[in-house]
Every structure is written in C-alpha cells, then in structure tokens.
Amino acid sequence: MISWRKHYRQTLIAIGLLLSTSASIYGQDGDPKNGEKLFKANCTACHALDKKLVGPALGGVVERLKKDQNLDIDWFQKWITNNEKLRASGDKYANEVYEANGKAAMQVFEGKLSEKDINDILAYTSNPPAEEPKKDDAKATAATTDQAAPANNTTTSVVIISLLAIAALLVWILVKLRQLVKLGQSDDLAGLNETRVKSFSEIYAKYHYVGKGLIAILALLATYGIWNWIMWIGVYKGYKPEQPIYFSHKIHAGEQKIDCQLCHSSAKYGKVSEIPSMNVCMNCHRTISEYNADHYMEPGKDKAFYDGEIKKIYAATGWDPEKQQYTGKTQPVEWTRIHNMPDFVYFNHAQHVVAGEQAIINSFNKKNPNNKIDVVCKACHGKIDTMNVVQMANDFTMGWCIECHRTTEVDMNNGYNKEYFKNLHDKLKKQYPKDGGKITVDAIGGLECGKCHY
Question: What is the DSSP string of 331-396?
C-alpha cells in the first residue's frame, strides 16, 4: 500500500514537471498575437519565420532547439536579453550561432524586452496566428460583372438607337442637298450667277488692303509661334519616364519617411545629386525581400509586382536571397535621367542644400502659404514624397532661376554668411534699403552671368 502511494506521488510529480516543462519549452504561456507585433517591431530587420535573412529562420525554433540541442526557454531568455553576455560566459551553442551567422552580433534587448515579451515572441514563432481570410476577388469580380450586365445592355441599346438616328439625319441632309443643286441649275438664278465674283484674284483685287493686313497679322503670329517654340526647346516640365526598376518615392520618402539625403548623399557635399548605387538599395532590401505594406497598393499593382521589382535589385547586385550572399554576377541598371542641366550651366547642389537651405524654404513658404514645404529639395523638385513616378516639377529655365534669386532673401545671420559678408553687410544694407534692409540673392551676385555661365 505504501509502495503504491509512493509511486503514485512520483507519477504525479513527473506529470506535473512534464506539463510545466512542455509549457515552458513551447512558449504556450505567451500571447502569439502580441508576439507578432513585437516580432515585427524588433526582429524582422534580421529574421523571418520561413527563411534565413541576416540571422536564421525562427519558425519553430523553440521546438527545434529543444530537440537538437536540449535547450529550453531559459536559454532563449538569456540569449535574447543579452547575447553578448551569454557568449562571454562560454555558452557553447551561443558561440556556435555567432560563428555560423558570420559573426553578426544580435542587438541587446536588455531593458527593452521583458520576460513576458520574450515569451510572447517565442509563442509567435511556435504558433503564428492565422492570417485573416481575404475577400474572394474572383467572386467579387463575378458579382460586379453580373450587376453591370444590365447596365451594359442598356448602353448598347442607346448606342444602336443613336447610330440609327444619325443615319436618318444624314439621309435627310443628302435629300435637301439634292434639292438645292436642282434649284441652283434653274433659270431663276442665271442672272445672279453672272454678277458673282468667280476667282480668288478678283476677290484680292477688290479687298487687297484687307488681304495685306491679314497677311501681316499671320506673319506676326507665325514669328511669335516660332520664337515661342524655340524658347521652350529643352523644357520638359511634367516629363516622367518609366525606369528599368520601378521605384516609388511615395512609398519610400512618403510612407516610410526615408530622408532624401540618405540615398542622395552627394547633394549635400557635391555639385551633383548622384543616382544612388544599388548597394544603397541593398542596405535595406538585403532583409526586405518582399512587399508587405498591404495598406498601400497603387492602382493596377499588386504584391507580386512589387516583389518582382525587388528581385530585379537582387539580380542587379548579384545577391542570392537563399544563401544570403553575393554571387559576384552583377547586371548594370540603365536608369533614364530626368533632370539634366546643359553643359554651359553651372549649378551646385551643396550651395543650395547647405548654405541656402533655410532661406529657400522660408522664401518658398512665403510665396506658397497653402503649399508649404519642409525639405529644401521640394522647392525645385516638387513634393517628391507624393510621387509614385518621379517627374520634372518645374521649368528649370534661366528665367525661373533668376526669379528665385530676385525673391529669395539671404539669411545674413547664418554663420557662414555672417562671416563671409562681414565687411559687406552694412554696405549692402545701405545699397538695398528697401523692405527694411532685406537682402536677396541678386544683391550678392545672384544675377552675374559668370556665376552660372563660365
């Protein structure tokens, strides 16, 4: 009897330990839905559930490591909280993971993620919530087609009736024309026909002063038209060509709030704003291999389209997303240039982006109170963060530049200008006393030919 009770007690303890261990191992005490939010906020830069990115795939990682390495939740807690400390302690598997992934150290989440947060993330990797069923597009399309069918039939009937009415009207006009021809051939009009002017020369002789005046007016209009056409050669406002790889500034600069100068870094330090190399794209797209922003889809485009464009980036850079390494086989991308200054024009981006940044923004917002900008680039290139396809937003003519120089006030309190124009400041105030001594770009040489043409 005592022996049975002893074994019974041991059995209950074993079952309890098994259940608690199982719950601990598989993260069943975590919240997968909250874990999904935490995973996307903290882990997706380096990890995915179904494939290797910078780090290994994490789908089912708890079960996998329990089976292969006999590691439990406590190990994951230590690893995620501070992997550096765990590796420094001499943990064998922690150092193996570090070596196997190119010694790419994982971020330390000590103080950022609680024990419960980590359990939620692990629960998500073991049991990710099922996606909500999407609307059946085929059924929706069929229903829309069925509803539109009566409307289409009605439209067809209206078109047929209209064509018949037009045909009847044409027949009636032909009949009337035939009657007029017969009337013109009657004897009653013979005398009238003899008095009519029968040639253009007779008309010109009779009204030659009017004719010469009309010819002069036409000559002036033709001259103006030719001059206007010549002046607009090379002006391509609204030009927006298709590019070999589709790139939406609205998604990157607008939706994702990426700074212009992160990609166009030379605009701040050089004469030209270079086209970013594909390696700049790979800074992000090494880990972003598919489009998941379902909240924003352009009309006529779907996830498959965006995923295909990302694959073009991989092909251009020679990136193998499966092996997470470069193959060395690259393909050049032939971008179509949109903004191209003539060879005889000098324009320095750095001078405008750095020295003139605040002055240009202030001037633009003053002239456009209902269309204000927050980035200096938009003054010339338009609201680029709203463009899916980049287009030339302004004329970029000489007159357009001169008008800007005449109306943009120079910030004389700017550290650079204050020092550079130290001796000229008072002189300029006396020379340009209008508007309370405000100094515009034209006052400091903004209209000198040699500034832009050399």
Answer: ----PPP-----TT----HHIIIIITHHHHHHHHHHH-TTS--SSTHHHHH--GGG-SS----S--
